[in-house]
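Incident log entry.

Two folding requests arrived from the same account within the same minute. Monitoring flagged them as a possible duplicate submission, but the sequences differ. Recording both here for audit purposes.

Request one:
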Amino acid sequence: MPPLDPDALDLAPSGPVYDQWHAVTYMRLLDADAEGAGWREVVRTVLHIDPEREPDRARQAFESHLARARWAAREGYRHLLRRGWPRSTRARRG
């Protein structure tokens, strides 16, 4: 399963591994957008970037990740369903 709160890159790349790793991030971004949350609050909380210290980086990261989240919600989820979640590297206890 993907982590619940991973750090994000400055730009959201287009790639299945990053998308799988950030599935929860994308859902959080889409929820915040639907609720009308301010981008500064969202980027600080979800992407872990201080918009006061790094406004250009924060805005760019926010916009690229939100765009990727919208793409994933529209059509990217099909790729995830075909491939499935990556297996954990930790051994299962049983």
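Request two (distinct sequence, not a duplicate):
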Amino acid sequence: MNSPLKVSGIDHVVFHVKDLARARKFYVDFLGMEVDHERSWQCFLKCGSQGVALFEVKEDVHAGSEVNHMALRMANGDYERVKAVLESAGIEVFGRRGDPHCIYFHDPDGHQLQLLLPEN
């Protein structure tokens, strides 16, 4: 079936967060994303040509129930160095069954993130 619509990429993913300042600091200062624009209750970030939007909410955040995970491609780095950086920041790193060198972790609100390292 030929669809008249063709998606060319993902513009942004939205995460609900309890503390916008804490989430912004994590994604900007720790993961190196850049602020595109923001308001008092939301912050749109850029990572390459994709975006992540953080929306502060008053209700409980159910991280992982609305999205399984977001995979972020790394510009550089190797497994041991990236894992060490995360762990030195107090972040628990885990892999997946059959791929112990896969890097998964959670942001401060419990959203699961995956880092994809460059191919060697």
